[in-house]
Amino acid sequence: MARKTKAEAEKTRQLLLDSAMRLFSEKGVVKTTLAQIAADAQMTRGAIYWHFEDKADLLHALFERSITPEAERLWRTMTEEGADPLECLLKASHAFWLEMNSESTLKQVMMLYNQAEQVPELADKLDELHCQEDSHMYQALKMASERGALHPDMSVETAFTLFHTLHAGMVQLVCGARKCTVELDKEKIFRELILGIERAVSAPGRLKSPR
Amino acid sequence: MARKTKAEAEKTRQLLLDSAMRLFSEKGVVKTTLAQIAADAQMTRGAIYWHFEDKADLLHALFERSITPEAERLWRTMTEEGADPLECLLKASHAFWLEMNSESTLKQVMMLYNQAEQVPELADKLDELHCQEDSHMYQALKMASERGALHPDMSVETAFTLFHTLHAGMVQLVCGARKCTVELDKEKIFRELILGIERAVSAPGRLKSPR
DNA sequence: GTTGATACAAACTTAAGTGTAGGTATAATC
DNA sequence: GATTATACCTACACTTAAGTTTGTATCAAC
User: CA within 20 to 30 Å of B194's CA: A12, A97, A162, B44, which one?
Assistant: First the structure.
């Protein structure tokens, strides 16, 4: 067996990416070898070296494939004219955590991001992506602050840090292999968490009773 | 040169641990080789293999060395009779974050814990340690809850998750190589964060004005 | 229908790191 | 003060995974 049609080649490329995604998020990037990925996709390493330059390039391709237009749209609507940026951010966080807790591809991608920090070749690219998200979040919070939606004791920087840290911690909590002693009802917790964070960041007058 | 006195041997053991700590936290556990550690300590790998079984055993020894009696005491005082567990927890968190932000050994140790998850041989040991801390924190928060110190919309589980996640996120934020776009005044932020978290978790009547 | 480019497979090379066996000088022990 | 256990060092064998080269069947284009 040898040369295939272009469509078929593209299909094996996607298969390789699928296998890489699965194995990377299952066993970790460093512990996964190219041979394992190839075997999982029923190919040989030759196929990988044909489609990608090396392991780092493979990872890079995974990121490229994972960048969704949805995220872009989300951030844009958050800073639109009529929107309430703080409420949007809280809602987005809630949705994010809920999906992170399922077996969605989002979770796999976040695990990848989490691990890829160990791979120096990708650190810059990752930093870039993080910085973009960070500045979006910062923008939203700044808008909220300018409208007096933030608590007087909470600067934009602190609110930013709070969200940033919570997100990172969530990813760690959900992705990490850590066995938590405490059995948790995630849905309930996420709901209560959002309410709590609202109390922490919102201006006193803007707090609503639980919906 | 050959055999040394017992005291000297113990000293080289400590030197090896020091070098391992430095290199592990500088370049990561996986990217650091035993040869590099030995060279940094002006020894050879032979010395490492004499004092430790392998890389995992070395890491394990690092953890053993890092377990401070201070932490134990801190958790004990938190759940003592007269103490206000919630306030103690908030204070401890504040202190923790401040020290994490310095170049203390605590930071190095936390970075190790963070990375060692990738090393499967240590995952169990780490889980154990984490679980201990978790249960301490959970205990403190439960006590606070029983005294009515928690906000009615905030269950013990949610408060626990909030602290847990914040801690993990902080470690990630401080330890990670991530370049943050936003320049931050850490001291101020930590102060405001604690106040914010207090608003999130504390029962409404117990909130104090800023001290 | 021949020819060149494609899409891999398979075998080989290279490099890095771990593990180990053997040597050796010296502290400890008696 | 002879012996033994200790605390390493040196060198080499083994393993593992990345990277490279070569081979080859087939698609595509003329």
Answer: A97
